[in-house]
Design brief:
With 103 residues, the chain is mainly alpha-helical. It has four helices and two strands, in the order ββαααα. The protein has a two-stranded antiparallel sheet with strand order 1-2.
Length: 103
């Protein structure tokens, strides 16, 4: 966890990291991380491995995100972008948009 300078832990992203339209996607990435880690004590700029994550959890996160996004996601994408913000940006750049799954 990081101190945001106010004496409180900073658990979320308080800046506009990229396009504000990425907010729903970022929320979905963050929710998948919290489920996999079984806690939400991380910021959107914390490295997954530094907040208790390990490689076995990545498959679950990416499978869940892939199902939500309606596409198969490479595990390499996560390893190359191990923060919520980095992964969100990479997914957005690849055209991923959170919505209702196709029927």
């Amino acid at each position: 966890m990081k101190d945001n300078g106010s004496g409180q832990d900073d658990h979320g992203d308080h800046g506009d990291h990229g396009d504000s339209a990425r907010g729903p996607l970022r929320a979905q990435v963050r929710a998948r991380w919290a489920d996999a880690l079984d806690h939400d004590r991380f910021t959107d700029d914390d490295d997954f491995f530094e907040v208790g994550g390990h490689s076995l959890l990545i498959a679950d996160i990416m499978a869940g995100l892939g199902a939500q996004l309606g596409r198969r996601l490479s595990l390499r994408l996560f390893f190359d972008h191990p923060t919520v913000n980095e992964l969100t940006d990479a997914l957005a750049e690849a055209g991923a948009v959170v919505g209702t799954p196709a029927r």
